[in-house]
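[step 3/7] fold_predict: job queued, chain A
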Amino acid sequence: MMEMRRPMLVVEDEPVHVVERSGLDRLIGGCEGMQQLRCSIGKVVAGDEQLRDDNPPAVLISGETGTGKELVARALHFEGPRRHAPFVEINCASIPAQLLESELFGHERGAFTDAKTRKLGLVESANGGTLFLDEIGDMEPALQVKLLRLLENRTVRRVGGLRDEGVNVRIIAATHRHLEALVAEGRFRADLYFRIRMIHLSIPALRERGADISLLADHYLALHARRYGKEGLMLSADARRALLQHRWPGNVRELRNVIEQAVLMSSGPVVESLDLDWLPASAGVSPAGSGAVVAPTLEQVERDALQRTLENSRWNVSHAARLLGISRDALRYRIEKYALAVPD
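[step 4/7] structure written:
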């Protein structure tokens, strides 16, 4: 049987040092898009501090896979007035729909065959704090109805339950999908879309962030150099140029993994372009060398990132899933979706 991975659950009563690491200081970058993002987060936090009641607006974070949507969600929570309350997160794409309802809303004893005891859901676990719903675009319509009821009434009813329980939860949702298109296709409820989009924060793709690529590369180089006992590593000019020319379909997550691999592969104090063997030689550049950029579709970007990660992990699905920051089930689904196969 396929291994079932539990959704990521983080119920935090954070000490100060973790709160500081989870704030705005984690959002590295000086490009205009990142400056605007930090400014918007600051305004949301300031509004939360001044709020006269205890019902903050829902937030929708959009951005391509690997841009750092979880970091933005954490910054909103740990910089705001709920910083000492629970922060609970779940990836809606990492667990089958038939189990997601029980995980989110809990169940009563006897609600179904294996329900031998009452179980609190993640919504109730987040009471007083924040519930972060990653990849909300993958949520089934039936669950969308229950989530809308939670947002409207601030109550939750466990599976098999007969009464509603009051909860005080701040909802932050994130997606890499275009929810407007899903609404038009009838796959996402319009009323829920407008309810979770009361505040919308958009994260720019790494290829749009210019010099931030070099800044982030230096950050991850120092981080992984410390981890592997190779302090003092530097990027050569050729290596830095290769990083700036790459289109980064996997965004910041891909950059982090590339730099970690380069740290491992480097044999001297300088990381050379040859150490960046994850990067294709001419990614995203037209054959004529005119500098014109070929814009791939989102499916092509995702497929290429998956293929490259699987090849670099020698088709170890568990390792590749960890590198991509998704569950094994989610990765297996995408392998089947794109008909990826181990080369002969």
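[step 5/7] annotate
Strands lie at 59-62, 87-91, 130-134, 155-156, 165-166, 170-175, 199-202, 234-235, 270-271.
Confidence is low (pLDDT under 50) at residues 1-21, 281-295.
exit 0
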